[in-house]
Please model this.
Amino acid sequence: MNRLFDHMEYYVDGKDRYHAGAHSGHMTEGLEKTMYAVCTLVESLMDSAETADEKEIIRKHIEKIKNI
Model:
């Protein structure tokens, strides 16, 4: 979770720099790292889920994300 928040901070910092006139690379790199961390977290949750109910909850929220 700490890594996820660190990447989010990197992304927000990049957005601030972008709005101040800097290149968007810092922002997009931060977003890429954040989304990678989200996917890694979801994969980890799925790996540790033991019951069909737990796995269904994860799948339900993956579908919500797909529909954004």
In short: Residues 25-48 form the longest helix (24 residues). Helices lie at 2-19, 25-48, 52-66. The chain has a mean pLDDT of 88. DSSP finds three helices and no strands in the chain.
